[in-house]
Write a structure and sequence with these properties.
Elements: H1 7-17, E1 22-26, E2 29-32, H2 33-49, E3 57-61, H3 66-77, E4 81-84, H4 91-101, E5 105-109, E6 111-112, E7 115-116, H5 117-124, E8 133-137, H6 140-147, H7 152-160, E9 167-173, E10 181-186, H8 187-201, E11 208-210, H9 218-231, E12 234-236, H10 243-252, E13 257-261, H11 262-269, E14 283-287, H12 290-299, E15 304-310, E16 317-320, H13 327-332, E17 342-346, E18 360-365, H14 377-383, E19 390-398, E20 404-409, E21 414-416, E22 419-421, H15 423-430, E23 436-446, E24 450-459, H16 467-474, E25 486-489, H17 506-517
């Protein structure tokens, strides 16, 4: 594939090659490749009729559905920039996301997951002078929006101006700053990343890919939606992730591929409805530790599963194992980065490269790296080293064969009496216990050691084990300084804090740990 490719080129190619094959299965919708292209072109003409054009920013606030996909693709056709907004954002966060991008329009669901999005946008609209159009799906404003159409000639003229280096999407990502940062990603960034990943995953046009990740996250957009666009495969998606519903979709739609992080797979594996005989999976990817990878391969029956590492600022994938590699290597984790990406392990203080096998910050340079943060040159400058490498904030290693492995987040490292402990190391061991569905570890203060590990675990349905029994099981399996000094069984992590993409929020978990354990902050 040429790297002058734009999203429009792939949409047209699929509609030409496989017009009647299913492209998208979502709640209440089944669209063929031809129908999806027509829907995208219709949205593009409606946006043009509103005065939206190349370089303008369009907010998108809705769950995973056909409107989200057609709106994203429609904006891309005319060079407009999609600004996906997290469906868990509160009104001030929604206002920040729209204001930072100076969105001229926002397309949204009136309500989703019991949240009144239309009301939330109305609440903050007075503070958004650039926002000219609010279009609500399922309400008259949506019908009026779709009824207004620029001409086909105007659409073709607009499409002709778009290049692969135009910004395709603004990915808001959390971090150490007070507000989300808007990662600027181009057509080239995202489509080349999706194509590289599709090759390593072995995606075929006849595959049916269940996506459990929200489209407002790059794991949902690049690594799911655009992987399907790049290959002509069918995208199957629920509005949001729930383990039981995901298992039903896997069976009913006879999905051959899926993906997710450790929490998503652990919740499906521990669900009462889980039954390997119901599944038809062949492959996919997981951002997970070896124990979870083993369970996905052996218990879910996913022989071609690949290990993945990435971050939003890299479009997002950096390294992905190849489905043709030995299964033992893929389960163990680690992978060679994509061709054309430079990856080094460096001292986070000096940026000096470290030798093979040493643990340090993963730093990146190459074609998948973002253009920078939206309207934030100061943070952008701090995120890159003087010689142009992206500082990921992730700890990792590179072995002599060039395989990259992530160890954890620098800011999450727990300093126990002079020893560094990555929470993932402890979580991985805990995940091997047959009663545990999900394990999470944070650091908490300790008068003698400065900091110690605190573990919180969710049990599988029907499991019966005590906290003391879990600690006794863990003790001979882990170094003493890694052994949690506190372990609590929790009914789940939703009430404590999980992102919409299925990750436990460590900041909120630590706050919960301090409160529940009666420790000082």
């Amino acid at each position: 594939m040429s790297w002058t490719t734009r999203l429009a080129d792939l949409l047209d190619a699929n509609a030409s090659a496989r017009p009647d094959a299913e492209a998208l299965v979502a709640e209440g919708a089944r669209l063929t490749h031809a129908q999806l292209r027509d829907e995208a072109r219709g949205v593009a003409r409606s946006l043009l009729a509103l005065g939206i054009g190349r370089g303008d920013f369009v907010g998108l606030l809705m769950g995973n559905d056909a409107n989200w996909v057609a709106s994203f693709y429609g904006a891309a056709l005319i060079g407009a920039v999609t600004v996906p907004i997290n469906t868990r954002f509160k009104p001030p966060e929604i206002a920040f996301a729209l204001a930072r991008a100076r969105c001229k329009s926002v397309l949204l669901a009136g309500r989703f997951l019991g949240i009144d999005f239309a009301g939330a946008v109305a609440e903050v609209r007075d503070g958004l002078p650039d926002l000219l159009h609010v279009v609500v799906a399922g309400e008259p404003s949506w019908d009026e929006f779709r009824a207004r159409q620029a001409s086909e000639a105007a659409l073709e003229a607009a499409m002709a101006t778009v290049t692969a280096e135009d910004i395709l999407l603004v990915q808001y990502t959390s971090g150490t700053t007070a507000h989300p940062k808007g990662v600027l990603l181009t057509h080239h960034n995202m489509l080349r990343n999706a194509t590289a990943c599709a090759g390593k995953l072995g995606v075929r046009p006849e595959d049916r890919y269940l996506n459990c990740r929200p489209f407002f996250h790059v794991a949902g957009s690049t690594l799911s939606l655009l992987v399907c666009l790049a290959t002509g495969a069918t995208m199957v998606t629920p509005p949001t992730f729930e383990a039981g519903a995901a298992l039903d979709l896997l069976e009913r739609e006879r999905c051959t591929l899926t993906s997710g992080n450790d929490a998503i797979f652990q919740l499906m594996l521990s669900h009462p409805a889980f039954d390997r005989a119901r599944l038809h999976l062949r492959g996919g990817w997981a951002a997970a530790g070896p124990e979870t990878m083993r369970r996905i391969v052996e218990e879910m029956g996913v022989p071609d599963l690949c290990w993945a590492y990435g971050l939003s600022e890299a479009s997002p994938n950096v390294a992905l194992s190849d489905h043709r590699e030995p299964v033992a290597d893929r389960i163990a984790g680690g992978a060679v980065p994509h061709a054309g990406l430079q990856v080094r392990i460096a001292d986070p203080a000096s940026n000096a490269p470290l030798p093979p096998g040493a643990s340090g910050e993963i730093q990146l340079r190459g074609w998948s790296i973002m253009r920078g943060y939206l309207n934030d040159p100061e943070t952008t400058a701090k995120t890159f080293t003087p010689d142009g490498f992206l500082r990921t904030g992730d700890l990792g290693t590179l072995d002599p064969a060039g395989r990259l492995r992530m160890v954890g987040r620098i800011k999450d490292v727990i300093r126990v009496g002079g020893e560094n402990v990555a929470p993932a190391e402890v979580e991985e061991v805990l995940s091997a216990h047959p009663a545990i569905a999900l394990a999470q570890v944070v650091g908490v203060p300790d008068a003698r050691l400065g900091e110690v590990c605190a573990a919180f675990v969710q049990l599988r349905e029907g499991a019966a084990v005590t906290e003391a029994e879990l600690l006794a099981w863990l003790k001979p399996r882990i170094a003493n300084f890694r052994l949690p000094r506190h372990l609590r069984i929790v009914p789940g992590f939703d009430a404590i804090g999980m992102t919409a993409s299925g990750k436990v929020q460590k900041v909120k978990l630590r706050a919960h740990a301090l409160e529940s354990l009666g420790l000082p902050g």
